[in-house]
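Narrative of activities, Objective 1.

The group set out to show that a structural description can be obtained from nothing but a protein's sequence at a throughput compatible with the screening campaign. Below is one input-output pair from the validation batch, recorded exactly as produced.
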Amino acid sequence: MIYTVTFNPAMDYVMQVNTINEKDISRSEKEQIFYGGKGINVSSVLTQLDIENTATGFLAGFTGNELERMLKADNINTDFVHLKTGFTRINVKIKSEKELDINAHGPDISEQDIDEFLNKLKKIKSGDYLVLAGSVPPSLSDDIYEKILEHFTDKDINVVVDTTGNLLKNILKYKPFLIKPNHHELGEIFSVDINSTQDVIRYAKKLQEMGAKNVLVSRAKDGATLIDENGNVISVTNAPGKIVSSVGCGDSMVAGFIAGYIESKNYEKALRLGAVCANATAFSSSIAKKKEIDNMFLNESIYIKQKGTD
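Output recorded for this entry:
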């Protein structure tokens, strides 16, 4: 079983506005609502790939209830803690001559809420996957990921972490199965600029020395590079085409990689499926669906271009 954790989910309210009128009322041409959150995005793609998983974390208020209803309508298993106060975020995205994103704060999470959440995680067994994705809300300390992993030192679980800064560095001592920084985040960790594949390899290997088993670095237009636990360096390309949205591409890559590895136990195949899912999302207006992933899987322009050990 795979469990994905999202501490601060959101409903994204997207408005298409032809012209912003600052002196009068501006009217939208179209509105859409999507559920969001990095762990939730991972669960969405895993479900499209027919991989059993459960989305967990924290929801609150009527917006949280609606988000969960939408997840269940898409056949995504859920096991969230429902907070007694506050509301799950509504983030406003205005698409016009310029794009304007307004992200809400989200509800406060108490120590009692954390205890309830940790109690839910007791069902995790050795061999399961736990995906910790995204930042944490201001009401939580930045060692929350560490507190979670301390509860599993007696179990051999596969921890996948997609976050940044100290949240990422501080969990490396728990030897996560996979971490997925992008190339900017990789550079920020070591206060350097990442300008080449060799830079990616050099600093990803430093993260391995600090504890990570596998390091997958997403590189925007340059695809992605994996340094696996056996010392192999594998890179994959992107498919050519016009990107519709980059939102959720990294999450889709994580989901595809996990699914590919579970099915094949082969890192090269896992990386390719990760790239397929990321590209399918990039060319979609929302997180990719099964048909879009299947079509992208047939795209031979996504290919492994580098293999070997250093």
